Amino acid sequence: MTAKSPWSITLQSRVGDVATRIPGAAEFLRQVGIDVGGDAASTLAEAAAAHSAGSEELVTQLKARAAAARRAAPEITPDLIGHILRRYHEAHRTELPALIELAAKVERVHSDHPDSPRGLANLLSRIHDELSDHMAAEEQALFRAMQMGGDANLGEPIAEVRHEHEEYAAPLQQVELVTHGFRLPEGACRSWQALYAGTRKFAEDLVTHIYLESTVLFPRFEPHGAQRRKDGQVAATT
Ligand SMILES: [Fe+2]
Ligand SMILES: [Fe+2]
Q: What is the pTM assigned to this prediction?
């Protein structure tokens, strides 16, 4: 991937951008002690220095996670689309309504707790509404055309969907902030535990879902935007 690509990972990449774009990045950054929400505006170099982590190693590890996600993607396009539909579209549709309900309950029951995830139900609800329209549009038009082999007219609809993908970064960062990086308070009830476990899984899924579409699936139909290899896979992109 070129240095201009929004998917490239360098020492100057912002923590918030990486955490909301690269599969497994948020979890990895949390593990090395970086506050994914609070440090969102810091570069990887700054965050690494503040947390005594090796910055080059950080970039290497993040690139390895991105590469692993691409390697795991089915090579045949209809298989890849089937995988995205089953593993992500269906999962989001099943999980989000239950998470919104659970978040509302936890916010209500623990309204006086200083660590209460205030605003989480609203945030998830907004994401749910936007994602429902986004996924329906992909399924009804774009994916159907791609499953039939695509044509030269897909450039514009793909650009629109790419633009919509960009709009999930901000709410995902907000989710990280209102849940305090999914840190449970001492003695958290089972509902609170289930809410953070489920929301964390959803956030990770959404990042991987968008990553697979934007860096693996769409470039197969953008002859000017990506180098295609003969097997239809796109050349390494980080
Ligand atoms: Fe999708
Ligand atoms: Fe999408």
A: 0.91
